[in-house]
Specification:
Layout (H helix, E strand, L loop, with lengths): L4 E6 L4 E6 L5 E7 L7 H12 L5 E6 L6 H20 L3 E4 L1 H8 L7 H12 L6 H17 L6 H11 L2 E5 L5 E6 L6 E5 L6 E5 L2
Parallel strand pairs: 1-4, 4-5
Antiparallel strand pairs: 1-2, 2-3, 6-7, 8-9
Helix pairs in contact: 1-2, 3-5, 3-6, 4-5
């Protein structure tokens, strides 16, 4: 299918959300939060984030981090968003925090300040929110997975790593297709462009 936008989601109490066009233009960049007590706050936050996703989007969502009381809370938010994406049949890929940083050109253990600097140097994007910066990187990963674009070696390594991981995929009718890497539909195979290093999908009709 043809994806109209590439979305990055950094799940948090202040969730970062960025949508890019196939050409890399920023369509939307925002931080989403809700007030109140849990679980109502979590439920409203999850709904607000997933409602921002279009049916023709391809999504990259940041993977889970540390285990702590705050970590369990964020884990609940993250799983809630994933379940809603799954229910709607929206294809997504999980991206570990270390891979997110690597794709931006930083080391896997780099601090947030370093990641912000690398993003500005590479793409000229900046935001007052670290969550939005992370979401921007995720959106670029989603775009790189489905379109042809020039990539550095570290970025190609990130995509190759993601290709080895499988996620459940639903069709737009809601039927479970199979577990397939990077949300590929059955009958699709990845290939790298010999010219620009972009990861493409060859699909049988």
């Amino acid at each position: 299918m043809k994806f109209e936008r590439f979305v990055g989601i950094d799940p948090s109490l202040r969730t970062g959300f960025v949508a890019l066009s196939p050409f890399g233009e920023v369509i939307e960049a925002k931080e989403i939060e809700r007030e109140g007590d849990d679980p109502a706050r979590m439920s409203e936050l999850i709904r607000a984030v997933v409602d921002s996703v279009h049916d023709t989007d391809f999504v990259a969502i940041e993977g889970f981090g540390y285990a702590s009381r705050r970590g369990f809370l964020l884990g609940g938010i993250g799983w809630g968003m994933r379940m809603e994406l799954y229910r709607r049949g929206i294809q997504y890929v999980d991206v570990a925090p270390s891979l997110l940083k690597k794709f931006a050109g930083a080391k896997g253990n780099a601090n947030k300040e370093r990641v912000v600097l690398e993003v500005y140097k590479r793409w000229g994007f900046e935001s007052n929110s670290n969550n939005v910066v992370d979401a921007f990187i995720l959106a670029q990963i989603a775009r790189a997975a489905k379109t042809e674009m020039k990539l550095i070696q570290a970025q190609r390594e990130v995509l190759n790593k993601l290709l080895k991981e499988s996620i459940p995929v639903r069709s737009f009718s809601g039927d479970l297709i199979k577990k397939s890497p990077l949300g590929m539909m059955q009958g699709c195979q990845p290939h790298h462009s010999p010219y620009q290093g972009g990861l493409q999908m060859n699909c049988k009709q």
